[in-house]
Amino acid sequence: MSKSTSVLSALACTLIWGTTFIAQDTGMDFIGPYLFNGVRFFVGFLALLPFFLFIEKKNYKKELNKNKKKFLKYSILIGIFLFLGSALQQVSLQYTDVANAAFFTIFYVPMVPIIVFFLFKDKIHWSNWPSVILCIMGGYLLTNFYDATIRKGDTLVLLGAIFWALHIIYVGKLIKIFNLPLLIGLVQTIVVSSLSILVAIFFEEIIIDGIFKQTTQILYAGILSGGFAFVLQIYAQRNITPTPAAIIFSLEGVIATIAAWILLSQVLNINNIIGCIFIILGVLISQIVPELKIKKVK
Q1: Structural domains in the chain (count)
Q2: Could you tell me the pTM of the whole model?
Q3: Structural domain that includes position 143
């Protein structure tokens, strides 16, 4: 897979994530956040299973022979990070609004290079830092956060951003070793689903009728976001390092804003438009500047 294909996969993933915020926010009208996530990710698992059977099954044993224990360890760890990130984000929507949640979630962008440096001592290209700053400024303007009130749910979103960052980092590490994006996707979705349903059994009321009332949100957030978007993320990270990948994924906020404009008839003000431009500039800088340096070296 070429880098351009990886970038396209990242953009497609971001497009799905951005439009899923609406489904997530309205998906808890009749059921709790953990049950919503549990069913959503199980639907994602079922959606991915036939693709694994037809595409990857014939090659997965060869890949796993490299180090089966390492694959299982990191795949389950990635699933746990995804469970914690998605659970904290979903629960936070009960205590804060979408604008706050979207803004504080974007903090995984600066967290990725910081965590990568301290955990692995990896060098970060200088162009990533102005890109990160542009993304944070863009998120601030995009979500109208300057008009927001800090709520207790915002702490949950910030904590969740740490796990989103760890998820991006370890997906990048795993896919570089094992070319099994669909199997990684299957493992992480079943881990998230199992843990979410387990928590729901203890802390939420299991309302079967409520699940059917949220069918549209669950199918959209499950098949597209919980299933295919996360696999697209894994495909993308084969040729994109974690920090630039996180910067591309920050376009999720731009997509969410455009989706709200189109689907919910929300008006975009000048600050929203400037915020979109800042994030797009941040993404372009992170992708183009390192390539210019490589061409000069050649």
Answers
A1: 1
A2: 0.85
A3: 3-297
Residue 163 and residue 172: Cα distance in Å, rounded? 14
DSSP string for 221-255:
IIIIIIIIIHHHHHHHTTTS-HHHHHHHHTTHHHH
Q: Are 138 and 275 in contact (CB under 8 A)?
A: yes
In angstroms, the CA 273 to CA 160 distance is 27
Q: How far is CA 179 from the centre of its chain?
A: 20
Residues 6 or more apart whose Cβ sits within 8 Å of residue 178: 63, 64, 66, 71, 184
Residue type, 213: K
> Rounded CA gap, 135 and 155, in Å?
20
237-282 pLDDT per residue, tens = 888 888 888 888 887 777 777 766 666 565 667 877 887 788 888 7
Number of Cβ atoms within 10 Å of the Cβ of 249: 27
